[in-house]
UniProtKB/TrEMBL annotation:
It is found in: Secreted. It comes from Nicrophorus vespilloides. The keyword Cytoplasm does not apply. Belongs to the major royal jelly protein family. PANTHER family: PROTEIN YELLOW-LIKE PROTEIN, PROTEIN YELLOW-RELATED. Pfam families: MRJP (PF03022). InterPro entries: 6-blade_b-propeller_TolB-like, MRJP/yellow-related. This is Protein yellow-like. Keywords: Secreted, Signal. Transmembrane segments: none annotated.
Length: 415
């Protein structure tokens, strides 16, 4: 076995933090590939726009900020901002929701600004954001924030859904806490969501909890939530073990990726919610008409309507659909992105992008209003596996890649 390479940065800690993260070769932006995706932003570590130099020094000294422990989980776009969710998977993570404003020339290590504020990111206060993995932004500029990572002990607050008005400095419009029977305070894992704007607003949410995975429906008008549990929402045994970037991933993470088909031509036609387990190959779909009917979801009858869609060639995290019915998802084990149009047979699925160097755990997708599709790659498994040593160095840990599609997201009509 090789002795560990001496790295001065591992010993001198924060004093040398700026030196230790000096950019190296790899930091230069890779140019557009034949498949059309190019790196739009990248980070070797995450840092913030601190209010004062004292705040920063204090956070470093008290280990409230440990740069290499901060991870990105979800990405969404609105107006000229990139909003980023920062799940707290390690200690020293002072912020769980933030944004960056694009800069003309700087694409590497842009500082993140806490959103809506530093105060709203305070830990261990149930009125603030505790542990966010993802969010969705509706067409009116309301962000539906899923504060639901409860797989560690960084908070004892119930998982919740918080609605922020992006056109009014992130004012909290509404906050809904989930009962323990819907998503557990300890062990719950609200992972991803899609939003349907009609009928007063519905969120369809995946709970990737190890003990109680399922699909959670939230009705804003009714102020109620209910949960559907089915074997199609559990991990698949033969998808439990794979390797990404040298890290072996062994686990049974259930339903994670979720997508919603665009509004139909006729109002009363159904829309489909697509879902897949992280440790799984199969994609399934269920009608919004069924999901929205709480009473029916409490019977056993709805299970007959779960449709098997097809098998992916690898495990995946996030998915997204555009307004033309194109479903995009990552293939974690093969460093690829797949695209399938729901109006065609599943056998027409294409692998549109492959990149073993840059596509390390494509986890979250977003679209802007000018026809661009983005994917965040985050190597998140390294943050989950607490035995994996995280270090500050010049390696890129997070990338946001972009490609032009000319389409909008699933909330817009494709007609
Ligand atoms: C983090 O950002 C602050 C500015 O907000 C800066 O003063 C500090 O040096 C940065 N730290 C690192 C490790 O880059
Ligand atoms: C996972 O798969 C690898 C390669 O097939 C194998 O060497 C390893 O023992 C497996 N691990 C577990 C826990 O099943």
């Amino acid at each position: 076995m090789q002795p560990p390479r001496f790295n001065i940065c591992d010993y001198l800690g924060f004093l040398l933090v700026s030196y230790c993260v000096a950019p190296d070769e790899e930091v230069r932006i890779q140019k557009r590939t034949s498949e059309g995706f190019e790196v739009d932003y990248q980070w070797t570590y995450i840092n913030f726009t601190w209010d004062t130099p004292e705040d920063y020094k204090d956070a470093v000294l008290n280990k409230k900020y440990i740069p290499q422990n901060n991870a990105m989980g979800g990405v969404k776009f609105y107006n000229d901002r990139v909003y980023i969710a920062l799940p707290r998977l390690r200690t020293g993570t002072p912020v769980t929701l933030a944004y960056v404003t694009p800069q003309r020339n700087a694409k590497t290590n842009l500082l993140l600004t806490p959103y809506p504020s530093w105060n709203m990111n305070v830990q261990n206060s149930c009125g603030t954001l505790q542990n966010v993995q993802s969010m969705e932004i509706d067409r009116r500029g309301i962000m539906w924030v899923l504060d639901g990572v409860r797989i560690n002990t960084f908070t004892s607050c119930p998982p919740k859904l918080v609605l922020l008005d992006l056109n009014n400095n992130g004012k909290v419009l509404h906050s809904y806490s989930f009962h323990n029977e819907i998503s557990m305070r300890q062990g719950g894992y609200l992972n991803d969501l899609v939003v349907e704007e009609s009928g007063g607003g519905f969120a369809y949410i995946t709970d990737s909890s190890a003990l109680d995975p399922g699909l959670v429906v939230y009705s804003r008008r009714q102020g109620r939530a209910w949960k559907l549990r089915d074997k199609t929402m559990f991990a698949e045994f033969d998808a439990a073990n794979f390797t990404v970037d040298g890290v072996s991933v062994v686990g049974f993470i259930g339903v994670d990726g979720i997508a919603l088909s665009p509004p139909p031509k006729h109002r009363d036609e159904e829309r489909l919610i697509y879902f897949t387990a992280l440790n799984g190959y199969s994609i399934y779909a269920l009608s919004n008409k069924i999901l929205k009917n709480e009473a029916y979801c409490k019977t056993d009858q709805w299970r007959r309507f779960v449709k098997y869609v097809g098998d992916k060639s690898s495990q995946s995290g996030g998915m997204i659909m555009d307004n033309k019915g194109n479903l995009f998802y990552g293939l974690l084990g093969t460093y690829s992105i797949a695209k399938w149009n729901i109006f065609e047979p599943f056998s027409t699925v294409k692998h549109i992008y492959h990149d073993e160097k840059q596509l390390i755990w494509p986890d979250s997708f977003g679209m802007d209003s000018t026809g661009n599709l983005y994917v965040l790659t985050n190597g998140i498994i390294k943050f989950f596996d607490t035995s994996y040593p995280l270090t500050l160095n010049g390696k890129i840990k997070f990338r946001i890649l972009k490609t032009y599609t000319g389409n909008k997201n699933y909330m817009f009509s494709g007609k």
